[in-house]
Design brief:
The chain contains 14 helices and 16 strands. By secondary structure, it is of the alpha/beta class. It has one domain: tm_1862 like domain (pyruvate-formate lyase- activating enzyme, Alpha-Beta Horseshoe). The strands form 4 sheets. Strands 9-10-8-7-6-5-4-1-13 form a 9-stranded mixed sheet, sandwiched between helices. A 3-stranded antiparallel sheet has the order 14-15-16. Helix 3 packs parallel to helix 4, helix 5 packs parallel to helix 7 and helix 8 packs parallel to helix 9. The longest helix has 21 residues. The radius of gyration is 22 Å and the shape is globular. It starts with 5 loop residues before the first helix and ends with a helix. The structure holds iron/sulfur cluster. The site of iron/sulfur cluster has 11 residues, from loops.
């Protein structure tokens, strides 16, 4: 039974963007030296050490008002073809620096709406990736899907191209909520995508939900949760909507008064956790649920789960190369992020420069903080003796300290 410390929640009550991992991107520095990036590439990547890849496809054809992602709203599909040409340029720059074909264990497409690509464009980008990377032992190849424009044929084509995981954006089924956030989407849209993924034998399916959206009610969201349980995805992510119109402009079209109170949000979270765990899902960390036989639940139980900017992952902290506008990657103990706007992304690549905007090198304190925050976000706890074991830090109990001071 989930219990909230209402006093603590009230004391710390504030809106903040969804927490991904430490350090958050706003702590990255514009002074991050590109020379350091080359050093990190050389020092951390080796031919036999598989890497993860993240590809950001920023285009969407409609705007969801709650959205805090880096996206470009457009109806001009020719943008995608041009973008893929530049993605190849960026990939080529990296592979030329490495001078070998890196092995990939995990490949993820996020956005924006990567599922807005056509079948030919998906095939084309996978051809490019296979040309420069070795995907023969890729365990996980995944894409974020917007079911509103995704046909079953699109999913079949993903399978043909080696994809084995999808994540579906669903958020809430209540028509009033959907209208208020400008995202009208039927249950059937998601159903057909999940059915196609199962037909293709995908390894895992995920559905994203959001609580705290305008006009959301406990009863309405209960209906959404009931319908999702019937859909039976392997994983469910349940995110809290943070209303920050000063940072995310489109949110200013959501009226403050329409947002549910903190009490309703807490009741919604509590109801969701109870229903999903009663239905057999394992509650993982802050905001994820997984079927007990899903790899994420298994790695959670084994203590081998990881968290990065794409959320929870079953892989130990493999280095991640990221491509596309605003994408974030990490190499050893440094993080980097690409420029956020398309023009400057194209400009860098036209001049054969890596399009890196900012980054951060973690020092020992950061590494310790990252470890503790990650542990808490997984298990809502951490063990002092593990810190002693990993970091060589010894802790004194109060009475031991007093004894020493006497
Ligand atoms: S939620 Fe997804 S589809 Fe909607 S605007 Fe954001 S990135 Fe695009």
């Amino acid at each position: 039974m989930l219990q909230f410390d209402l006093g603590l929640i009230e004391k710390c009550q504030n809106n903040a963007p969804r927490y991904t991992s430490y350090p958050t991107a706003d702590k990255f520095s514009l002074d991050y030296p590109i020379s350091n990036h080359y050093v990190q590439l050389k020092n951390n990547l080796e031919p036999n050490k598989p890497i993860s890849i993240y590809i950001h496809i920023p285009f969407c054809n409609t705007l969801c008002l709650y959205c805090a992602c880096n996206k470009i709203i457009t109806n001009d599909r020719s943008n995608i073809a041009k973008y893929l040409i530049y993605l190849e340029k960026e990939i080529k720059l990296y592979v030329a620096l490495l001078n070998y074909k890196p092995k990939v264990i995990q490949l993820h497409f996020g956005g924006g709406s990567p599922s807005w690509m056509s079948n030919n464009e998906v095939t084309e980008i996978m051809k490019i990736i296979n040309k420069y990377f070795d995907l023969s032992s890729a365990h996980e190849v995944s894409m974020e899907i917007d079911p509103r424009h995704t046909s079953q044929d699109f999913i079949f084509n993903l399978a043909k191209n080696g994809f084995n995981r999808i994540s579906i954006g669903l958020q809430d089924l209540d028509p009033k909520v959907q209208k208020a956030v400008n995202r009208i989407q039927s249950l059937e849209d998601s159903q057909k995508v999940l059915v196609a993924a199962r037909k293709c034998g995908f390894r895992s399916t995920n559905v994203d939900l959001i609580y705290g959206l305008p006009f959301q009610t406990l009863l309405g969201f209960e209906n959404t949760i009931d319908e999702i349980i019937k859909l039976n995805p392997d994983r469910i992510a349940l995110f809290n909507y943070a209303h920050l119109p000063n940072i995310f402009m489109p949110q200013s079209r959501i009226c403050d008064a329409d947002i549910p109170s903190p009490q309703v949000k807490l009741a919604t979270l509590s109801m969701s956790v109870t229903k999903l765990t009663d239905a057999g899902y394992i509650f993982i960390g802050m905001d994820h649920f997984a079927r007990p036989d899903d790899e994420l639940a298994i790695s959670y139980k084994n203590g081998t789960m990881q968290r990065n900017f794409q959320g929870y992952s079953t892989f130990a902290d493999t280095n991640m190369l990221s491509f596309g506008v605003s994408s974030i990657g990490f190499l050893g103990s440094s993080y980097y992020q690409n420029v956020k706007d398309l023009d400057s992304y194209y400009h860098h690549l036209d001049n054969n420069h890596l399009p890196i905007m900012r980054g951060i090198m973690l020092d020992n304190d950061d590494i310790l903080r990252k470890y503790i925050i990650t542990e808490i976000s997984f298990y809502l706890d951490f063990l002092l003796h593990i810190l002693t074991h990993i970091f060589g830090i010894f802790f004194l109990l109060n009475n031991e300290l007093n004894h020493m001071l006497d």
